[in-house]
Structure formats: C-alpha cells, structure tokens
C-alpha cells in the first residue's frame, strides 16, 4: 500500500468548476476539438460533429458497450461496492492482445451502442444510486469531449462521485489540460518503452513519446501522493498501470526508470500480472512472442525491479491473476465480468 495523504473534506473536483460556472466552457472547448478531430495524437482532422468517422471509427455520439459495478480494479477503487465502470466502445489503439477486443475492435457492431449524452449522464447516476464508489471511464480518450459533456449534465443532476480516467495514455496533452479539475483520478497504462513495439502491437506511431508527455501532464495536475478517504478509497491522484508482457515486450525496466527519474520514486505504480493471450495474440503467428501468459520468472523479475528502484508506492496483483477475474465476455453486456457474481450480496 502507498503512503498516503488523507483529506476527508475533498469532494469531486468537477463540482468546484460547476459551482464557479466554468465547467460548461471547458466542455465546449473540448467539443470544438471534434470539429477537426485532434483529441488524440492521431490528429485525424475529421469533422466528428458532422458525423465524419475518425480513425477510431467514432463520430459525434458516445458509444457505451457496458456499464457495471466492477470488483476487479485495485482495492482502493473497487472497495466493497465496486467501481462504477463505463466501457466505451471502439479505441484509438488496436492492441493485438486487447482483453476487451469484443468492444474495442468491432466498430460495425458497436455503432448500435451509440447513446445520447443525456443517457450517458443517466448511467453515471444509476451507478451512483447502486452504491458504486466512483465513476470509471474505460478507454475514454476518443470520447473525452462526450464524457465531459455527460459529466456536466450528471453533476447538475446530483452526481458527486470521483471521476476516474482509465486510459491507454495515447492522449493529447491539450485535451488533458482541459480535463484538469474534471478528472479526479488518472489511471493510465504505460504500455511500451519502444516505439517499434507500439506500432507492431498497438498500431500507433511514437507511443512512448506521446504517452510519456500525457503521463507527465497527469502528474502535473495530480501532484505527488494519493489522497484517500477514511475507508481507504482513492479520491485523488495518479496511479500508473504497468502490464507485464511476455518476453519483456513492454520494456518494463526502461519505463520504470523513466517514471523513477522523471516523475519521482514515490509515484504510485500498479504492477499487473493479468496478461493472457487473447485476440490476435492467441491466433496469429505474427505475434508468437505474445502467445503465452507470463512466466513466474518474468513476474519475479518485474517485482524485483520495483524493489531495486525503491518504488514502494502502489499495488501489485497476484501472479495467478490471469486465471479468472480479468477475462471479460462482453456478449453479456450487463455482467461481462465474473467477479460481480462472486461479490453480489
């Protein structure tokens, strides 16, 4: 567990912007970026407000593939009643091993899941009513303006929960600056240290360059340390996820050293062992280096790196994590994760 700062009076930051009549202007600035879409580093230039479909196969309206209480996140996010996760359809990456490929890479099927901003706001309020501890937007990058608009609507109608931005980190710094004060918790993946790996396995250019710039902006906004409430639930901060991949495709040591040197050794890390071969990594011989789960030795090396660098803040999964809770089936839209059946009273 990380050393923490506690502030029991801290509420969701977007409520401050709302009270100061500044939230809507942020939303409008984000929406204007959709007119010639540059809300991620792909800089497509498509007029999504006029329904021109961008490289992420997304247009004007948000696509939500599932929303549910989720118990498979870090303990400080899942708590006892679950994180209120909203899974956007489509993605600006094309990871060949994506565990959510059923919704991230099936754009034709996902168009039927387009909803209005008002409906997205209702989903947040429903999750709050169910008792979820927070609202976690999963893969929000390509729908950041739509997310912000829905938060504005929901906040005016009683939303009070912290907002989690759970991203692949291939984000625009300009967008992140506009999200300052709207997002309470940044939860980025730092996927690769090598640009060639990012192109080969996620089909984007210069991943480390853009992801590191994005994470640095997240840290600027969040500052050092994590802020919890009295129940141990995270309210504010930056928590960087590092998924250990087979054959060190992620370049874990280089990423950890970058975090240590550029962000500081007290930066909170979530070290993840949940990788298993799925999507194209399980079937396409071009990705044979990703065709197995990680070995115990690879996991031990990753844990040892954290210890060697003196990075003690954060969480780590059990080595056996790939076996059960992290294998969603989005054919069951209401309950894609097995864990909710285990934790339901």
Structural topology:
Blueprint: E1 4-6, H1 14-19, H2 23-32, E2 64-70, H3 75-78, E3 83-88, H4 101-104, H5 107-110, H6 117-129, E4 135-138, H7 144-156, E5 163-167, H8 173-179, E6 185-188, H9 195-202, H10 207-222, E7 226-228, E8 234-243, H11 252-263, E9 268-272, H12 296-309, E10 314-316, H13 339-343
Parallel strand pairs: 1-7, 3-4, 4-5, 5-6, 6-8, 8-9, 9-10
Antiparallel strand pairs: 2-3, 7-8
Helix pairs in contact: 2-7, 6-7, 11-12
Descriptive notes:
With 345 residues, the chain is an alpha/beta fold. The protein has one domain (4-343): TIM Barrel (Alpha-Beta Barrel), CATH 3.20.20.70. Helices cover 34% and strands 14% of the residues. It has 13 helices and ten strands. Strands 1, 2, 3, 4, 5, 6, 7, 8, 9 and 10 form a ten-stranded mixed beta sheet that branches. Helix 6 crosses helix 7 (144-156).
């Amino acid at each position: 567990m990380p050393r923490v700062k506690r502030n029991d009076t801290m509420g969701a930051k977007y409520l401050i912007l709302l009270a100061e009549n500044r939230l809507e202007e942020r939303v409008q600035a984000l929406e204007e970026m959709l007119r010639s879409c540059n809300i991620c580093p792909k800089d497509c230039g498509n007029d999504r407000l006029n329904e021109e479909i961008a490289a992420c196969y997304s247009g004007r309206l948000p696509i939500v593939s599932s929303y549910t209480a989720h118990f498979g996140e870090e303990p400080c996010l899942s708590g006892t009643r679950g994180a209120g996760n909203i899974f956007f359809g489509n993605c600006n990456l094309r990871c060949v091993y994506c565990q959510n490929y059923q919704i991230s890479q099936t754009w034709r099927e996902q168009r039927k899941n387009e909803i209005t901003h008002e409906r997205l706001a209702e989903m947040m309020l429903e999750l709050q009513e169910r008792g979820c501890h927070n609202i976690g937007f999963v893969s929000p990058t390509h729908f950041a303006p739509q997310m912000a608009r829905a938060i504005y609507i929901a906040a005016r109608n009683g939303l009070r929960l912290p907002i989690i931005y759970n991203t692949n980190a291939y984000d625009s710094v300009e967008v992140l600056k506009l999200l300052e004060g709207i997002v309470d918790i940044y939860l980025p993946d730092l996927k690769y240290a090598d640009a060639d790996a990012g192109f080969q396995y996620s089909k984007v250019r210069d991943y480390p360059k853009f992801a590191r710039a994005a994470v640095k902006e997240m840290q600027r906004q969040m500052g050092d340390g994590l802020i919890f409430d009295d129940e141990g639930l995270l309210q504010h901060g930056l928590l960087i996820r590092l998924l250990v991949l087979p054959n060190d495709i992620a370049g874990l040591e280089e990423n950890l050293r970058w975090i240590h040197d550029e962000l500081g050794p007290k930066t909170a890390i979530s070290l993840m062992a949940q990788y298993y071969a799925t999507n194209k990594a399980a079937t396409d011989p071009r990705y044979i280096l990703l065709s197995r789960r990680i070995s115990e030795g690879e996991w031990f090396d990753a844990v040892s790196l954290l210890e060697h660098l003196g990075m003690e803040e954060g969480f780590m999964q059990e080595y056996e994590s790939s076996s059960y809770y992290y294998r969603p089936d989005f054919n069951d839209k209401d309950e894609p994760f097995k864990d909710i059946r285990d934790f339901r009273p």
